[in-house]
Amino acid sequence: LNNEDVNSEDHFEKTDKNLIVKGVDRPLLGEYSCWTGNAKLSSTYLLQETEEGEDIDSLLTCHAKSYDCNFSCSWTNSRYAVVRLGIGPECSKGQRSCQWVSSSGQLENEGFQFELYHNLSPFAEESSMLEVTAEAIDNHFLLLRKTKLFYLRDIVVPDSPQIVSSEVVGQQLSVNIKPPSSWSTPYSFFSLEHEIEYVLRDDGRTERSLSSLIPKRISKLRVRCRDPLVLSPWSHWTPWKNVRNSCRCKKQKKSKLPSRCLEHCKKKMEERTKDAKRSQGL
């Protein structure tokens, strides 16, 4: 038991190759192994299930980047040495048919990261909840089994979108935004709502807009997105992107200037001409 020879007759009974544990208590929990010389033949764990511990929502958090067939879960409590997850009623009932999933990596806070898969159709209305069961073993060989129920739509949080370009349209700036590469396709079916945050160049005020058309005179902008049908949480903001006036008026033929800059440069030249006349007293 836990690398120590089993000798006590008060708690154990040996019958041929079988070992019977009597009056199971915490000191008798752990790994039982069978040896011949220095060779380990087999082992099994004797655990005690407990209802102790925090609520499952504080232990296990799940999120999906889209409505595709995969999603991620994080186990954030470092008290437990081993954790595994399973999907479906077979796992919540502890049946042998459960397909358990081991951790795909360890978090910085000594928790665990999992990659899970489901068979829900992304194009059908979601009527059944996902059933994720966690089994965790702490350092005292106590087994914690808890089940978390949720709809896929409740854990969807898109990645940040992409700012493709911006173009001056009259007195406004039109921002071209592209969905994140991880988002479900086709985009015509899986629509996204975008919000733009921008800083005004004149007074430095920060404002937001749900329209792709924003004031022209801004110094920088950033964008985030969400699913408008289920009002999912917003994605993270993109990094700030500086916005510069792309219309540079130089001494060149008008035909070489972009059409959107002609009016801008014409007004600028008129202002310079007026300023020059004032300074000459004309």
Automatic annotation (TrEMBL):
Which residues does the UniProt record annotate as the domain Fibronectin type-III? 157-246
The answer to keyword GTP-binding applying to this record is: no
Q: Which Gene3D superfamilies match?
A: Immunoglobulins
User: Which InterPro entries does this chain map to?
Assistant: FN3_dom (IPR003961), FN3_sf (IPR036116), Ig-like_fold (IPR013783), IL-12 (IPR050676), IL-12_beta (IPR015528), IL-12_beta_cen-dom (IPR019482)
Q: Which cell locations does it reside in? A: Secreted
Q: Which domain of life is it from?
A: Eukaryota
> What keywords appear on the UniProt entry?
Cytokine, Disulfide bond, Glycoprotein, Immunoglobulin domain, Secreted, Signal
Asked whether the keyword RNA-binding is assigned, the reply is no
| Family, per entry | Belongs to the IL-12B family.
Q: How does it assemble?
A: Heterodimer with IL12A; disulfide-linked. The heterodimer is known as interleukin IL-12.
Question: Mind telling me what this protein is named?
Answer: Interleukin-12 subunit beta
Q: Which gene encodes it?
A: IL12B
